[in-house]
Amino acid sequence: MEIFGSIFKLTAGIGLLLFAMYLIEESLKNLSGRNFKIFLQRVAKNNLAAVFGGALITGILQSSSMVSLMVLAFVESGVFTMKNAMAIILGANLGTTLDSWLVATLGFNANIEVIAYPTVFVGGILLMFFKNQKSIKYLSYFLFGFGLLFIGLAFMKTSMEYQVATFDFSKYSEMPKIVFLLIGFLITILVQSSSVTMAITLSAIHTGIIDFPAAAVLILGSETSTTIKILVSTAGGSASKKRVAFGNLLFNIFLTVFTFIFLKPILLLITGSFNISNPLIGLVAFSSFINLISILIFLPFLSKFAKFLEHFYKTNNTLPSAFIVNANIEDPENALELFREETEYFINNSMLFNLNLFDIDITLTKENDKFKTANEIRNFFSKTHEEKYDFLKQLQGELQAFYLEFRTKLQGEQNEQLNQLISAVRSSMHATKSIKDIGSNINNLKRSSKDIKFDFFMHHKNEMEILYIKLNTLISQNKKGVFKELRSLFEHIQSNYTTALNNFYKDFKSGVIKDLDITTALNFNRELFTSHKAMLMAVKDLLLDEKEALEFNQIPTYQT
Fold first, then answer.
1. Is 62 left (phi over 0), alpha (psi -120 to 50) or beta?
2. Strand locations in 158-219, DSSP E?
């Protein structure tokens, strides 16, 4: 019966390890939230920085799969190019080995249980009494997970020690290396975590069940199997998303084959040149080294590799949404951030529609790096005016449907943020509709041979261009405290409208504008003012916090 107890202890250790990693991942994901995503976006533009950023974040979050899935979401939305994504994923593969150093140095060479037990106790107490406070709740998750990680490791270690005392494993160490490669692959497929495979292997090598070369091959086998979950997650996704996942698979296959061929010299380098005699340290050094070498081999050819991947999978993007298509409402913080990105994307394209009708080309808006790729994928720039308007209506419908489902998952401040964002979408659509309604007037005025009509059009065109440049600058800066700038812009819009009306009536009475139809001119002025005001309100709801937005709505001139 003792053998069964030992096996159950091993499986319990694996279970505790998996649960501990889940708790740590959840805690860090929720405590960090938006900062990690912003960090990823910033570092992605430079290949070397992207590799470093991917490694750093994976080392902190303890999950290359989580970082990879996050990157795939950015690829799906067009925020990351394939080259950006591959660079971060290469770094993530290296970053996942950083946790192994912690396990190897503390889990086996120190009495970590002395710290682990009190950590679990403190985590449990905090969770019991402060579970309704988000920051403390996830701090308790982290403490609880950290303690369970090493308690699970201790279970596995004692189980392995019993196995060694009971069985003779020497005959198994003589098996062909390819067998250990397959074992590593299968274990990782089952537990869905290369970190758990590493913990199991470290326990086995610590107790002498397998030797260093066999352990190295076993870890090598886990490299490729970690990509299977990522590959499966792209089913039904965009072609770009599938290409990145496929590229990750090819990279890991290369890593496995290359290392397996040159296994002996690599192991000799670690034990000889690096002078590492401790097999535990040697194993994690081997894991980090092969990932680092593979990155150094791939990095110079990353652009060519990205172009090579473009030959695979047909592009099929029918959905207007670029961000919320990847949102999971069970992860509210991430989903809210994606909804915010989609709202900004909607406002950006609404501006493009309005500017296009006036024949205004603002490169800063059209070639916004954040949305240019998404628009190219969806052929937005090549659409007709009617097609662009239909696109915006469909996107508004998707945002509205997502909002209705998502709002039930949010409370308090997050719910207010969501309400502001959907209000921004409605205002932006209102701004677009007002411009569309005077589309025929715009065409008549800008093609008119009469100076009075053409000058009337050019005056409003110049005003619109100046306004949109300022609004786009505020959005692109994405900074807080823009209340004064928005108020100043609104007062300017109101002043322009009032001045235009007064001048119009004055000129009409004097007979200066007899060639310009009064009804057309008045309607044109009113719709343009309505559109400008609505677009400003959209930007207001996007950028201001709840208190500032409410204060802005109290401005006396808010109502026309």
1. left
2. none
Contact indicator for 418, 336 with CB cutoff of 8 Å:
yes
For residues 26 and 410, the model is more confident at 410
Q: In what helix (H) or strand (E) does residue 559 lie, and over which residues does it extend?
A: none
pLDDT band at 2 (very low <50, low <70, confident <90, very high): low
- Whether 512 shows a pLDDT value over 60: the answer reads no
The pLDDT mean for the chain works out to: 80
Query: Pseudo-torsion of CA 198, 202, 205, 207, nearest 10°?
Result: -140
Higher pLDDT, 25 or 279: 279
Structure tokens at 8: 């159950």
Phi, psi of 416 (to 5 degrees): -65, -40
CB 24 within 8 A of CB 142: yes
Interacting residues of 151 by C-beta distance below 8 A, sequence separation 6+: 16, 113, 116, 117, 120
CA separation for the pair 428, 349 (Å, rounded): 9
CA distance to 28, 39, 53, 240, 517, per residue, from 92 (Å): 16, 14, 8, 19, 65
pLDDT score of 559: 44
For residue 374, give the nearest of 79, 84, 85, 44 by alpha carbon: 79
DSSP H helical segments within 262-331, as ranges? Answer: 263-268, 279-298, 302-309
Contact at 8 Å (CB) between 220 and 227? no
CB 242 within 8 A of CB 228: no
- Quickly list H helices, 33-133: 34-43, 47-61, 64-77, 82-95, 98-102, 113-130
For the segment 31-40, the average pLDDT, to the nearest whole number, is: 61
The position carrying tokens 């808010």 is: 558
Closest CA to 149 of 118, 180, 116: 116
Distance of CA 501 to the CA centre of its chain: 48
Distance CA 283, CA 263 (A): 13
Q: What is the dihedral of CA 186, 190, 195, 200, to 10 degrees?
A: -70
Which of 145, 151, 142, 141 has the alpha carbon at shortest distance from 117?
151
Crossing angle (nearest 10°) for helices 518-543 and 451-477: 0
pLDDT band at 337 (very low <50, low <70, confident <90, very high): confident
Nearest to 343 by CA among 371, 384, 381, 380: 371
Domains and CATH numbers, the chain: 2-309 (no CATH), 324-558 (1.20.58)
At 313, phi and psi to the nearest 5? Answer: 65, 135
- Cα–Cα dist 310/143, whole Å: 44
Biggest CA pair distance of the chain: 109
Specify the DSSP element, H or E, that contains 206. helix 194-206
**Residue whose structure tokens are 């579970």:** 131
Cα–Cα distance for residue pair 195/354, rounded to 1 Å: 52
Q: Which structure tokens are listed for 445?
A: 């005025």
Q: CA of 23: how far to CAs of 59, 62, 197, 215, 250, in Å? A: 15, 11, 18, 28, 31
331: Cβ contacts below 8 Å, ≥ 6 apart: none
Helices 34-43/47-61 angle, 10° precision:
160
